[in-house]
Amino acid sequence: MSDTVKILLPETEMPKQWYNINADLPVPLAPVLHPVTHKPVGPDDLAPLFPMAVIEQEMSTERNIDIPDPVREVYRQWRPSPLFRARRLEKALNTPARIYYKYEGVSPAGSHKPNTAIAQAFYNKAEGVKRITTETGAGQWGSSLALAGAMFDLEIEVFMVKVSFNQKPYRRAFMESFGATCTASPSNLTAAGRAILADNPDSTGSLGIAISEAVELAVQRDDTKYALGSVLNHVLLHQTIAGIEARRQLEMVDDYPDMVIGCTGGGSNFAGIAFPFLGEQLRGGKAVEFIAVEPASCPTLTQGKFAYDWGDTAHMTPLTKMHTLGSAFVPPGFHAGGLRYHGMAPQISHLTDLGYIKPRAYGQLECFAAGLEFARAEGIIPAPEANHAVKATIDEAIRCRETGESKALLFNLCGHGNFDMQAYTDYLAGKLKEEDASAAEQSMALAGLPSVAGL
Prior knowledge:
Its EC number is 4.2.1.20. By secondary structure, the chain is of the alpha/beta class. It is about 40% helix and about 15% strand. The chain has two domains: about 5-15 and about 80-110 and about 240-430, Rossmann fold (3-Layer(aba) Sandwich); about 45-65 and about 115-225, Rossmann fold, CATH 3.40.50. The protein contains 18 helices and 15 strands. The chain has a seven-stranded mixed beta sheet, sandwiched between helices.
């Protein structure tokens, strides 16, 4: 197998459990707080939004959590996903590095998002929920939940950030093909949306605004719950199936990563590939470098503050301690819509604060250039989000060429770019420009952070 390109696991070896990094944290996470009382939340506080099984996973410190058989049955449509050795890219870069990528674009929705969408739909259906509301940025999450809704006969209502709604019409068509409703956010369907539009009729929207709209509708009906596609513990938990598979696939070729790389917006795909390896390190295993890559125009980890903040713009959600640019921050309309979020997953924020994860930020033009370099070698056009991980991987491979080191580099190719060709068309035509995050807007948003006494 010395020249293997695709490293494949049979369905019989698909993981039966997800991995929960909370079991191995050297310091526990800061508690989630009620937005009004600032007291730690309990299950009853979250029950209007989530089914109890999901709430239990959110709060669990159990290391391994069983994947229900009905969820594994749906996973079998595309899992285990392939691990590729990027031999053509290695040759193009003339690097001694061994580059591997876990390709999550083989899912029906074209990204890693169904790993949690299928699970959340299953748990909601099991508790008698009829309707789920959610938000989506670039559309990968909305597409995945639409798919999951069709699998489990659930009504799905998606609020899509307006700039992406306009940029990516085929994502909307994908959602509607599976029976979901897709509305540009901010909208006139909610009080939160109407308030934003009254203040700024031309608002391009943000994930924080779309979350507010989805949460507002969810709490109005007993048969409705809310689902989130990233950030929260249970979402990151469901994504670890990718890293668990990758660990086994690397064993098949007698290798282990020196570095694990992923793009980060809310944090779920990075956690999915990194946490199983980071957990091994925390339990005394091999030390690995973990690189979280974000857009320079929404630099949550590299420039944000590690503090308590709301997850949404209208302040309906509980307070979590995370790296944040402020819940009122509206990122510019760069093309990696899945990375346009003001906050970062509490688990990733916590581990970054402890020094286990190293963040870096790139501009969108250099990421698109890296994505095309990868595509021309490997034959897969990455999603704009995934291009950030590609860029960091290429940089590290070039560094290995300069130093002569033969490191094993693993990254998560979290989705393909087949719905994002307008972005590539614009890039190739020279129409894309860097979208700088406004320092003044960041300062203003951070000034609105909640005051939490003693924490």
